[in-house]
Amino acid sequence: MARKLPATDVVIIGLGWTGSILAHELTGAGLSVVAIERGPWRDTATDFPTTYAQDELRYHIRHDLFLRPAQETMTFRNNASQTALPIRTWGAFMPPNGAGGGGVHWNAQTWRFLPTDFQPRTHLTERYGAKFLPEDMTIQDWGVTYDELEPHYDKFEYLCGTSGKAGNVKGQKQAGGNPFEGPRSREYPTPPQKQPYGPTLFAQAAKEMGYSPFPQPSGNLSQGYTNPLGLTLGPCTFCGYCEWFGCGNYSKASPQTTILPSLIRRPNFEARTNCEVLKINLDKSGKRATGVTYVDTSDQEWEQPAELVLLCAFQLFNVHMLLVSGIGKPYDPGRGEGVIGRNFSHQVTSNVNAFFDGKNFNPFIASGAIGMCIDEFNGDNFDHGPHGFVGGGYMGAVQTSARPIVSTMTPPGTPRWGAAWKKAAAENYLSSYQVVTHGSCYTYRDVYCDLDPTYTDRLGRKLMRITFDFHENELKMSQYLTDRLAEIAQKMGPRQIAKRPRTGPYTIKDYQTTHTCGGAIMGTDPKASALNRYLQSWDVPNLFVMGATAFPQNAGYNPTDTVCALAYWAADAIVSRYQKTPGPLVQI
Amino acid sequence: MRASAACLLLLLGSSAAQAAADKQAFEEIARGRYLAIVGDCAGCHNAPGGAPYAGGLPIETPFGTLVSPNITSDRETGIGAWTDDEFVNAMQDGIRRGGEHLYPAMPYTYYTKATRKDVLAIRAYLETVDPVHNEVKVNQLPFPFNVRASMVGWNELYFKRGTFELVAGKSDEWNRGAYLIEGLGHCGLCHTAKNAMGGDETTRALQGSALQGWYAPNLTGDPRTGLGSWSVEEVIAYLKTGHNNASAATGPMSDVIVHSTSQMTDADLRGIAVYLKDQPAANGESPRPVSAEDRMMRAGEAIYLDNCAACHTSAGTGIPQLFPALKGSPSVQSTNPASVIRVVLRGAQSVATDPAPTAPSMPALGWKLSDSEVAAVVTYIRNSWGNAASPVVTSDVASARQQLSQRSD
Lengths: 588, 409
Known about the structure:
The complex is a heterodimer of chains A (588) and B (409). Chain A is of the alpha/beta class and 588 residues long. Chain A has helices at residues 17-28, 44-47, 56-61, 102-105, 120-128, 146-160, 197-208, 255-258, 260-263, 315-325, 419-428, 472-491, 560-578, and strands at residues 3-4, 8-13, 33-36, 74-77, 85-86, 168-169, 172-173, 214-215, 225-226, 232-233, 269-272, 276-282, 289-295, 301-311, 342-345, 348-355, 372-374, 393-397, 432-439, 448-456, 462-467, 496-500, 517-519, 543-545. In chain A, helix 1 (17-28) packs parallel to helix 13 and helix 6 (146-160) packs across helix 13. The A-B interface holds A 44-45, 49-51, 224, 226, 229-235, 237, 239, 248-250, 257, 261-262, 265 and B 243, 307, 310-311, 319-323, 347, 349, 352, 354-361, 363-365, 367-368.
């Protein structure tokens, strides 16, 4: 039996990037906020000291920072003809856990989406005709534009101190930046990171081929920076332990380094960690959330009443929470109706390994978001007419790590183990280099999330079931991008390259990215989206759902900048409009 | 509800007290609140989780532990029944109601320099704080120090009843700083060395002192070990936010910044900075730096590059507002290296304040560096980039490690 607690203005489910942003904005507006977080409290000093944080075995191989699958997992199948089975070891993505969420262990690649990424159906239909898109492709416009999000992108980047070079300031193209990006209101807060040899060589080759290389925007900072909240970050030390690790150098933008130390000083904020929300409670009408029920580690259930509920967990868990709480109509792929679980997507990445003679890349001089990239083949920056697919991605030399256990590259034909493998690994460690593509993933009628008919979690709730496979459009895109990338790699002068385009079927075992998207998407039509343009539930107006959950499909970029821009956009709508007149912010 | 109950209690209290203060002397109360901040009353009289000024915080002294008393206006367990004169006697003569002597952990030796008007303003403010019934057993010293009468002789030797005199020829700022530091601010309680009996070594005022496993640094204008190399603005920023471009506050100073200096006016902080920077450095020759070719220095450099340079930089410059500079650092070059050895062994977290909430930490290295390695790296940072200070030897670190192992803080 749940014990009822005194009501609060706002309850937040999950204290990662979006929960921290919303908590900071709403406590700043005078509201009392309680954040309920499934995992532990984490802070830089205690949890990621530089004396032991760089431990590949503990963090990369043994997944120390991630949610334990025994606590919550999901089932997976490639298509409806298969029986889904539970994921018992994380593979394709790494669900975050604890204060800071994925913001603790991201690589900090801080990209904005292209303006046309927000209206792909309208844009692609206008340019290529409706018949150009595959019949079962379900991509949608977001209902929000790049121009509307620009101030919120800017706010997040200045929170983080993002290091980069603008390519377009107020419509004026800037030399050295990304010429394809949407207009920014101002330059990045800090200059780009210094580039190691690999990215430098890539940029030189790309430039010779007529492309416009630019430094990847990075949340691992090039220099010290004090953000508008008074928090100070230091310059990145190129240790190469970013993704899947916490940063003990105060160099990587995370909730810990940019928000939480300020937030915890506010008397109207409270975090309850190691507490797992069971469901969002609704009143009898089913149209109003009354708060949440959660369970603590002593197995005591608590009811936390609130005027406003913000669902800020990782994308997959947001969808699960909506499904188990009975909010919104579950998606039915047969009829193509319903909104919860609809338009699930992921990311389509690929790479080219290049093996050189007489070059030393010092690949361990690494940083999660360092690198030189080109954007000629992203979004609709190139004519898709002759190619028969839509979408694209950036590509580049992104020197994130060369850790000993998983980063060792050997040329094709090398045995997988034994003396010959060891010899090849040692010979190629310094002189081989991987370049990558990071592509979009569009959505299809038969790709979705729902509740599993068989498996339940430890709390008795049905697990969520993912039904996902790559479609021909994405595989063609990956082949095309990888071919273009290979041309640049070849220009870098290797003795041998290995092209590794993404191929089907999608496997849940191998890491792709942690960029799962969709499942409760934003849009303009309540029949085709779970959330309106302000991330407000169409069905339960005092519920807002954050994160990549709202992405109608995924673009060819890392999602965090857009996730956090949307969080600021929603926070602004809540403070400036919803608080004055609670109710639906969009009338149909 | 709580506030109105408090008011009711105050009314009842005042009807019984013989010299009722003016309960709506707003300016007096507000001034008193500020002066209580300057005097850092909360630093000792607030216990973690306890009500404001209700006492109960154990205070470590070289002679044993004292527990701070309740100074709320509770009539039975606080000071609500005291007359103004009794309050002034306690603050300025170290004699509490009933005639017993206070121990100088209560800095009456400094408060004696404050004006009676300022002391009574503090009283007026404390009268407005919620009275809390909290009985505290203050004296937990071992024999013979628990005999309060012993303080009669001590006062004869080390206590001078005094008033603050303006110094002609010094600026108003300087004199304001002098009044605050010599009086309510009681900086010397930690920063002036003590003799064997706990009295101030007045000839070495503010030149630094060991306490609680730290070394409270030299606050004089000494360019190497004091504040001589900091601008007035840097001193103000340090006191206001706990951080400046060169350094970060940690250890017992964190509490002082939280409860006191971060809430002081810029004008008062300026006065403090001006006065301190004008205090004469100790006589004596500056040490010559240990040669970079010294075996210990070379070992220290290698350890430094592996363990320290990522944050403090290979040039020892640190990162402004985040990682302290070691180059030119007064704490690093301190005559007594206790603090720097402690920070290397145990790590430390700097203070969080509203303007600078990051509170960056240094991780502990004691578990991975041996005594001789710590000695080498500390010697290295004390004698590189233009720094100069006595070398630290392995036995210094061993003894610091042993002493720290007895401490829970």
